[in-house]
Amino acid sequence: MSDGNIRRVKTAVVGCGMISHIYIRNLKQLFSIIDLTTLCNRTEAAAREKAAMYGIERVMTIDEVAADPEIELVVNLTGPTAHYSVIRQMLEAGKHVFTEKMFTTDLSQSRELVELAEKKGLLIGVAPDTCLGAGIQTARKMIDCGLTGQITSGFVTVTRNQNLNSEAFKFLQKDGGAIPYDVGIYYIGALITMLGPVKSVCGFGAPALYHEKQLLFDDANADNWTIPGYNLITAALEFESGTLVSVHFNGNAVGGERSRIELNGTEAAMEVGNPDTFGGKVTLIRPESEPVTMPFTHGYNGINMLPEKSPFDFYGNRGIGVAELAWSIRKGRKNRLSKEYGLHCQEILQGIDEAVQTGKRVDFVSRCEVKPLRSGFYSSMNGMRGDAERSLAE
Predict the structure, then answer these.
(1) Which domains, from first to last, does the chain contain?
(2) Which of 11, 89, 162, 337 is exposed most, by the fewest CB atoms within 10 A?
C-alpha cells in the first residue's frame, strides 16, 4: 500500500533476542508505514549480526537511539525487568514506544509511564498484538454483529510445564516468568478486546514448583530454581458489562500447552482459538445446528505472505501493533493497544495476585477500550499478498 501523503515512521528496535527475528523481518518487509533504520542491543555483536541478516542500516547504543532526532518510534524487545528503564528513557527523549509484554514488572512504574506519556503527548503501545489478528478480530465481529447475543459468561484455561520451559527459555526464571504473565497475558488481552474492561476479580493461587535441572546437556542453568510468583491461578473476572469469566492458568502441569476459550451468549456459544496465535479458529454453536467454523472477517491470520520463508514464521504477524501505532502517530489518534490497555492488562494480573494474597475481591480503577479493526481487508488475495494493512490505517 502506498500513499504519497504519508511519511513513513523512522523506527528503532531495542533488544535483539530470539523474538526480534520476526519483529525485524515483519517491520522491514510487511508494513509500508514503518521505516526500520536502527537496531540496538546490550551486546553490540548481536545487533550487528541481526543488522547484517536483515539489511538494517545502523547499529546504535541505547543512548544514541535516544539522542537521534530522526527516530520517532522505538520498539522495546528487552526482557520485562528492563522495560521500565528503556521506556522511560525513550519517553524522556520524546519518542513513542511499543513494548513487548508485560508493560513493566511493577504496577506503580507502569502508572508512572502512563502519566509521563500523557504529559509529553506521546503514545505507548503494549503487546500482545495477537488480539489484532484474524482470530480475535473475527470473534469480536461475531459479538458486535449480535450472532452470540449478549455474552453472559465464559471460561479460559491454559496449561503447560512452565517449569521445564524455563530451562530452555532462561528469562522465565526471573520476575514475569510465571505462566500468568508469560502466557496468561495473551488470554487477558483477548478477553479485554472481545468483552471490554474488567471491573473486579477474586482468586486462588499457588507458587511455582521447586524445579531441578533436567536438560543435562545445557550447562548454562543452575542445578535448581523456582520461578518467582504464582505459577497456578484460578480466578473469577467480573467485566464492566456484567459478563463473568472463570480463568485457569496452570504452569505446574505436565506436557505441552493445552488451551481453550469458550464464551456463552444468550443466542449462541462461541469457541475461540489460541490467542497466542493470530489465526485461532472461531466456532459458533447455535441451537439445532452443527457447530460452524466461521470464516475470518479480517486479515493477519499468521500465515507468512512474504516471498521468503523463515524458521520464525510460527510467530506469525507480530509487529501489527507497532504498525497500528505508527499509523496512529500519522493520523493523530490514540492507538488501539494503548498505554491504558497495557496498564489494564497488568492491573488485572497483579489484581489476581493481590486477591490470592488477601483472600478478598479486588476492584479496578483503570479502564480501556480496544476499538475493533475495520473488517473486509485480508492478508492474501487469490494466493497473493493482500491489503490487510489498510485495516490498521483506518
Answers:
(1) 9-130+317-338+365-393 (3.40.50.720), 132-298 (3.30.360.10)
(2) 89
